[in-house]
Amino acid sequence: MNTIKMISNVVFSKTIENFGTLQLRPLDLDTDIPLIHEWVTKPYASYWEMQDSSLEAVQESYTAVTALAHHDVFIGMYNEEAVFLMERYSATKDPISAYYPVQEGDYGMHLLVAPPTEKIHGFTWHIFTTILDYFFSNDLVNRVVVEPDVNNKKIHALNVKAGFQYESTIELPHKKAALAFCERVNYKTAKMNVETKENRLKKKE
Question: Domains in the chain, start-ordered, CATH in brackets?
Answer without folding.
Answer: 12-204 (3.40.630.30)
